[in-house]
Every structure is written in C-alpha cells, then in structure tokens.
Amino acid sequence: MNELEQCRHTRLVALARVALEHDDIVEHWLTHPQPGLGNRRPIDVAACNESGYRTVESLLLRIEYGTYS
C-alpha cells in the first residue's frame, strides 16, 4: 500500500468510526459487500482510484447524516 492509499484508508476508517460508531461494525462494513456500492466491498472500491474512494466516502457521509436510502 503506497502513502496515498494508506492515507485514504486511514481517513475512511476514521469516517466509518464516526458514521457507524462501533469498531467491530466498522471492520465488518469495510470488508463485506455493501448494497450501496453495488454489493462490492468498500475497501476494494476505495482502493481502485480516487473516484472509488470518493464513492465510499460519500456513502459513509450519507449514513452519518441519515440520508442513505
């Protein structure tokens, strides 16, 4: 994992902790397929490129603010 990928991963984990509130839920959410990502794993989507990272970030923000449907 290069420095940029590490930074993205760290930021996503921090955002997931805020949005999901429990570390065990965070790890599960990041490593299991999510319907909001076309049943892909957030960790895989975010690792693809900047667009994938932003997609996962956006989903976490929607979850945090209660606008995910």
> Number of helical segments?
4
Strand content: under 5%
Largest sheet, in brief, is: none
Give the assembly state of these chains.
Answer: single chain
- What's the mean pLDDT score? 91
Give the tally of β-strands: 0
What structural category arises from helix and sheet content?
A: mainly alpha
Helix content: over 70%
Gap between N and C termini: 32 Å
| Shape descriptor | globular
Radius of gyration: 11 Å
Order of helices and strands: HHHH
Unreliable stretches covering 5 or more consecutive residues: none
Description:
The chain is mainly α. Helices cover 71% and strands 0% of the residues. Helix 1 packs across helix 2 (23-31), helix 1 packs parallel to helix 4 and helix 3 (42-48) packs across helix 4. The protein is globular and about 30 Å long. It starts with a helix and ends in a 5-residue tail after the last helix. The relative contact order is 0.16. The mean pLDDT is 91.
List the helices and strands and how they pair.
Elements: H1 3-20, H2 23-31, H3 42-48, H4 50-64
Please provide a brief summary of the model.
The chain is mostly helical and 69 residues long.
Features:
mainly alpha; 69 residues; 4 helices; 0% strand
